[in-house]
Give the backbone structure.
Amino acid sequence: MTSPRRPAGPATRPTRVVLITGASSGIGRSVALKLAEPGTALVLAARALAPLERVARQCRAQGAQTLVRSVDVTDAGRVGELFQAAEQAYTRVDEVVHCAAVLAYGRFEDVPADVWETAVNTTLGGSAKVARAALTSFAGRRGNLVFVGSVVGKIAVPTMSSYVTAKWGLHGLVRTLQIEARTTPDIHISLVSPGGVDTPIYRLAGTYLNRHGSPPPPAVTPDRVADAVISCLRQPRRENNVGIANPLIVLGFRLFPALYDALVTPLMTRFALASETVANTEGNVLHPLGQPDLHSLTPPDIDRS
């Protein structure tokens, strides 16, 4: 049973406020659960409210304060409202972990334009909107901003053009922000780049291959990536790579492009696509699955239990 809500006061003021996007599942969920403890306030955001509330209940059970908001990161206004709500509730945001991303599988010409563009806008455009809001919130004081990228931000793979495009763009955005942050030494920006991660994103993704994606081996757990994120919060660094095969894959892509190009399609088909046949679908790209009407949601109030 959830404890009664009570007003903020000195006894309930958190010592740490962390805002996490994409917190309803996968890496974002793991980060939230690992950070949940007394004295910490977690601001949890995602499009789908029901799974987000489940994560919030688990975090409260571990002693963390929570604020839950349904937010589509492609909407700059909603992203701004998210940070405003956090600041109103807790007076500040100390750290931001941005995990929100979507993708669609299929040859570039087979993925409908609206699906492709929305996938890029969510994964890359959403990152820019969260970055802008975070840097505004951090202005004049300390702040840590961690982005979850991907090894595909350094390589190219077939049938994932929206994700590859977005993650390459994210890598460029993060490196630019890191250079600019040299003039604001109290603000730290890090990138976590995993390889295959065993999360729901593959089954939730759009597909125009009649097959779902699957995490390419050697896949790591969301907890493993969450540990890398938390390590960057504790000790900021330019980049934290997760995945034993990542350096070899990137090296092959850069040094042996012809060989890489010849091998990557059969390897993707064999190891990064599920075997069963499914109907083509937009997945969760345009709307969170099972919850298509985002604007009908009434965001819940803060729970300080």
Remarks:
- Strands lie at 16-21, 40-46, 65-70, 95-98, 104-105, 143-148, 187-194, 206-207, 239-242.
- The longest helix spans residues 113-138.
- Confidence is low (pLDDT under 50) at residues 1-11, 291-305.
